[in-house]
């Protein structure tokens, strides 16, 4: 008997296909859909949101990944408003402007202003004079520089060790000796490049704004009543945008007419524009045809250290400390197990049930990767050992939730421009292909959204 003839199904067509349903993919899809583009998002896992993972357990609202979002631009602020999230938005408690740092075993508030810097017990008088000499230090002629080199040169080593290095650890779980000031903190780098000094540059910018009547956007830390998952849900509510989860990409091919065809779970999808927003390590799973695959695999790898997040719940009476701040950071000089601890239920009271408090702790990162990979019981034991004398904790936590991130946050190390150039070259050589994600333009949620908006803005 003759085998039955099979006719390939015509491919379903979109303007844009996006691979990866994290915040980068969803925000890009939403912004393009708002411009009337037909967009389809393909996500491998069974849920959308990527690193954003909110759950409710025993009355605690647990964020396994990002805890909050620091909105850094007017564009992102307006976008959240357009998503209809104003009534759901919760602003961080004002007290969370205060951040603690450990020095010689004690908790000291981190100075958040110039005046605070002058009066803080964190630095001795000589170290403070060194800090105030910042405007008189010439600007670097280097094309890039590590955070350690930049901060020591401009502000002195004390400010590095008991200030910036701990903040760097809080944002990137990174190593200031390796992180690039130019790529990890571009605003700081640009102040030096543009004005020759950070203090002088900040003052000049303030004067310029006063003269022109422009006001700078004041960053705001926010979340949502039911957690960051509300952002994910809102991003998906756009008419021209469709999503699929649990998708297995079998192949990705570019035809001579410039169309991209993605074969996914037995279906063929086609679009003129293909945006890959998966983590870098997932590129090899996507089965691109040659030569795109070779080029993607040739992109210089960037470090993503392992990290554990541990949410601990306690009865309020178990903790003597008022928990009056954002949290506490452990500078590397203090040689502690924990990188830092956020007072989650101080920042957002709905994170813990009545009478309880929630702390979110970070363990691992570039400088202590092995700690981040330890089993839950050991993590709890060592973390509580770090925190108990500082916060006056008695007894064991009544609740815990541990999440392990084997490849947590991309490190924007010195030399990051080699990586960025490689991405640009691929995009130039294969029109219609775009490689986006938290490894480009900043890892924060606000950065990911800002980049998505800027990208969408540039599309015809
Ligand atoms: C522990 C932790 C804490 C953080 N804390 C904060 C914070 O407090 N505030 C803040 O602003 N930022 C924080 N960040 C950073 C921020 O959460 C991330 O940078 C951001 O969410 C990354 O979004 P993304 O879409 O670029 O990548 P991801 O969220 O990684 O999304 C990529 C998506 O691609 C999917 N994918 C992978 N392979 C495939 C495939 N083969 N096919 C299809 N899809 C695939 C993944 O499943 C995932 O959904 C934190 C990050 C971590 C890990």
Structure explained in plain terms:
This protein is of the alpha/beta class and 460 residues long. Among the domains are: 12-43 and 225-302 and 412-458, FAD/NAD(P)-binding domain (3-Layer(bba) Sandwich), CATH 3.50.50; 112-212, protoporphyrinogen ix oxidase, domain 3, CATH 1.10.3110.10. 33% of the residues lie in helices and 22% in strands. The chain has helices at 23-34, 74-82, 114-119, 125-132, 147-155, 157-172, 181-184, 186-195, 198-212, 229-235, 292-297, 344-347, 369-372, 376-391, 416-429, 445-458; strands at 12-19, 39-42, 54-57, 60-63, 69-71, 89-91, 99-103, 106-109, 220-224, 241-244, 249-254, 260-264, 267-276, 307-315, 327-329, 340-342, 356-364, 399-405, 433-435. The strands form four sheets. Strands 1, 2, 10, 11, 12, 13 and 19 form a seven-stranded mixed sheet that branches. Strand 7 (99-103) and strand 8 form a beta hairpin. Helix 5 (147-155) packs antiparallel against helix 6 (157-172). The termini are far apart. The model has no long low-confidence stretch (mean pLDDT 93). It binds flavin-adenine dinucleotide.
Quote the average pLDDT. Answer: 93
Task: Please report the distance between the alpha carbons of the first and last residues.
Answer: 53 Å
Profile the largest sheet. 7 strands, mixed
Number of helices, counting only DSSP H or I runs of 4 residues or more:
16
What ions, cofactors and ligands are bound?
Answer: flavin-adenine dinucleotide
CATH architecture annotation of the domain at 12-43 and 225-302 and 412-458 = 3-Layer(bba) Sandwich
Highest CATH level, the class of the domain at 12-43 and 225-302 and 412-458: Alpha Beta
Low-confidence stretches: none
The geometry reads as globular
The CATH H-level homologous superfamily of the domain at 12-43 and 225-302 and 412-458: FAD/NAD(P)-binding domain
CATH topology of the domain at 12-43 and 225-302 and 412-458: FAD/NAD(P)-binding domain
């Amino acid at each position: 008997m003759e085998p039955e003839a099979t006719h390939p199904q015509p491919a379903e067509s979109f303007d844009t296909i996006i691979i990866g349903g994290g915040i980068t993919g969803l925000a890009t899809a939403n912004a393009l859909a708002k411009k009337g583009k037909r967009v389809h998002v393909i996500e491998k896992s069974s849920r959308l949101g990527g690193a954003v993972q909110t759950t409710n357990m025993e009355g605690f609202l647990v964020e396994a990944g990002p805890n909050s979002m620091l909105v850094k631009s007017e564009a992102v602020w307006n976008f959240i408003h357009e998503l209809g999230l104003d009534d759901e938005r919760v602003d961080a408690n004002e007290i969370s402007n205060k951040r603690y740092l450990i020095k010689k075993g004690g908790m000291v508030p981190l100075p958040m202003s110039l005046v605070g810097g002058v009066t803080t017990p964190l630095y001795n008088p000589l170290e403070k004079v060194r800090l105030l000499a910042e405007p008189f230090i010439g600007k670097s002629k280097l094309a890039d520089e590590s955070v350690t080199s930049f901060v020591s040169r401009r502000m002195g080593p004390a400010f590095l060790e008991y200030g910036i290095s701990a903040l760097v650890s809080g944002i990137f779980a990174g190593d200031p000796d390796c992180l690039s000031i130019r790529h990890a903190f571009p605003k700081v780098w640009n102040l030096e490049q543009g004005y020759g000094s950070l203090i002088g540059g900040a003052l000049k910018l303030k004067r310029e704004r006063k003269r022109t009547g422009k006001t700078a956007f004041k960053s705001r830390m926010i979340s949502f009543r039911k957690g960051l998952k509300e952002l994910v849900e809102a991003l998906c509510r756009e008419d021209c945008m469709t999503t699929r989860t649990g998708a297995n990409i079998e192949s990705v091919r570019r035809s001579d007419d410039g169309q991209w065809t993605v074969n996914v779970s037995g279906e063929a999808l086609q679009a003129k524009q293909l945006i890959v927003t998966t983590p870098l390590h997932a590129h090899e799973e996507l089965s691109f045809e040659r030569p795109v695959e070779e080029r993607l695999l040739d992109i210089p790898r960037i470090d993503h250290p392992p990290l554990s997040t541990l949410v601990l719940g306690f009865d309020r009476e178990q903790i003597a400390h008022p928990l009056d701040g954002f949290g506490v950071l452990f500078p590397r000089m203090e040689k502690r197990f924990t990188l830092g601890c956020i007072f989650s239920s101080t920042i957002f009271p709905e994170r813990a049930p009545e009478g309880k408090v929630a702390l979110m702790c970070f363990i691992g990162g570039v400088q202590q990767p092995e700690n981040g990979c330890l089993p839950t019981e050991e993590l709890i034991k060592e973390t509580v050992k770090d925190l108990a004398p500082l916060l006056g904790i008695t007894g064991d936590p009544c609740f815990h939730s541990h999440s392990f991130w084997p490849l947590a946050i991309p490190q924007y190390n010195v030399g990051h421009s080699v990586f960025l150039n490689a991405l640009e070259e691929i995009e130039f050589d294969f029109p219609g292909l775009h490689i986006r994600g938290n490894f480009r333009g900043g890892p924060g949620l606000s950065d990911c959204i800002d980049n998505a908006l800027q990208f969408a803005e540039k599309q015809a």
